[in-house]
Amino acid sequence: MLRLLTIVACCTAITACTGKTFQRSHCAQELGIAWDELSIAEADGFAGTVSYTKAFGLLTAAKTMQTVENFDRCYQQARDARFYIQESRKGQ
């Protein structure tokens, strides 16, 4: 029984590490793309500036999530930031 529990615990740990590595790469990739888009974005009008500011705030939060290894939330915030970057270009 103890041996079975040990095997199950090891398999669970290996699976968790694999998932975290997958999320880590997606977080880093999405964050990198968003920072690149932000650096070339030109906000159009006041509404565009508001969207640009929202995107910057989300990217800062995503970088924090990456630092504390909350990769799922990092990816979501970086993806949301990319949406606001696109909106800032439209002036919305």
Shape: elongated
Give the class from helix and strand content and strand pairing: mainly alpha
Count all strands and give the number: 0
Indicate the radius of gyration in whole angstroms.
18 Å
Instruction: State the order of secondary-structure elements, H for helix, E for strand.
Output: HHH
Distance from N terminus to C terminus (CA atoms, Å) equals 61 Å
Protein name: Lipoprotein
Task: Please write out the topology.
Blueprint: H1 2-40, H2 45-67, H3 71-90
Helix pairs in contact: 1-2, 1-3, 2-3
Short structural summary:
This is Lipoprotein. With 92 residues, the chain is an all-alpha fold. The protein contains three helices and no strands.
Report on this structure.
The chain is 89% helix and 0% strand. It is mainly alpha-helical and 92 residues long. It has one domain. Helix 1 (2-40) runs antiparallel to helix 2. The radius of gyration is 18 Å and the shape is elongated. The termini are far apart. The mean pLDDT is 81.
What labels describe this entry?
92 residues; 3 helices; mainly alpha
